[in-house]
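User: My instructor asked us to take a sequence, write out its structure as tokens, and then describe one feature of it. I'm not sure where to start. Here is the sequence I was given:
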Amino acid sequence: MAGKSIVVLTFVVALVAQGSAQDAKAVIASVSKAMGVETLKTIQYSATGFDFALGQAPNAASPWPKFINKSYTRAIDFEAPASRVARVRVQGENPPRGGGQQPIVGEQPQNQTIIVTATTPWVQQLEIWMLPQGFLRAAASRNATVAAQTAGGKKYTVISFVGDNKAKVNGYINAQNMVERIETWIDNPFLGDMLFEALYTDYKDVGGAPFPMHIVQKQGGHPTFDLNLADVRINTPVNIQPPQAQGGGAAAGPPPAPAAQSEKLGDGVYLITGGYAVIAVDFKDHIAIIESGQNEARALAVIAEAKRLIPNKPIKYLINTHSHIDHSSGLRGFVAEGSTILTHQSNKAYLEKVLSVPHTLNPDQAQQQGKKPIVEAVGEKRVLTDGTHVVELHHMLNFGHHDGMLLVYFPKEKVLLEADGYNPQAATATPPTPRSPYTVSLYDNIQRLKLDVTRIVPVHYPADSRPITMEELARWAGH
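Assistant: Let's start with the prediction itself. The structure tokens for your sequence are:
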């Protein structure tokens, strides 16, 4: 199984002994008694701490960027089961570094409600089942097994069961009969069979039910939450209702992406919208595409539209502006296509590594076909031309959003494609004070490179589809 291979890579474990199903029931009962599972029906707590934006680091060597959780409250009903979170987050790093819709101006409230039904995605259910008492409840209702393991020089009893996505869920029980760590694997369109971990420390007795006062969640090898709990209350009435707009149980998923649409920017140069903006170029004997889209479905839609616009030619190049997860999760669609990925040299090793990881939980076309990525490095500048079309790739300097960002310029058309420097708001919106450093940097880089731009194509395309001009960018950059 994929889970086993990933465990070998990420958590060195020595298997000592395997217990029978009957042993597992006894162990689960013993640990559940120690952790007050039978008496713990609901729990509510407040916390402060941090959350981190998955896949939005400023470079491959950095953790996910950090945001401050000024307040965080959560209520869990284990019997429903259901969970409700309300938090207020603020900017965590100044100056901002990386993505995740930075910089946050002022306070940003966020809410999440999960009510488990027959159709609730497993990854949402895990928000409940990866809590210590939630894990033990789930293990008791499934064909769990038990093993004695040594990890990091420490002995554990490990309770395991198979989740709805066919990945193992492992709970590490320490000598005090407390759940210290839970791990499983979930599908991610970019990071593949991604390790999801929860670490629990600083247990405190709360009315006979020990509960951790420090919770850390990790995804993709870096923290995504780090919370210090306070004011923990058990078995108080919890009334978790679905959000009004849903009228149902599970949190609604994103609406399906609209079909790919196209607009001609020049002779043989096409803008493809309907998701993240993409440009396709008709070279003499091949197609080059800038940006891959935010998932495989978007990538496949872009590929189909590009081939409709430019028939009977292979897609030789896919130009990746940067390695952030939302801009690179469509890359494997182009790996399956056999395209060469052009990216800044600082991204090359990272993309080669990530695009080669297994996708067995939800096999995509690259996994099914056994395709391997072809990644080619771009330095400070590279020009693609067939004598008719010219496409310039420029490395952005002093750009805090991502150290390996490429600008893509079409000198003949005077069109510039950019990602995350300027993400247009409504046409009537007012620029913030102070200005976003990312927008200022974009403007400064265009001036530094002396690019003659009449139209800007933001990858995060404006909702009203209006053309973005240099005049608009200058206004938002404070010029």
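For the description part of your assignment, you could build on this observation: The chain has two domains: 2-234, 261-476. Try explaining in your own words what that tells you about the chain.
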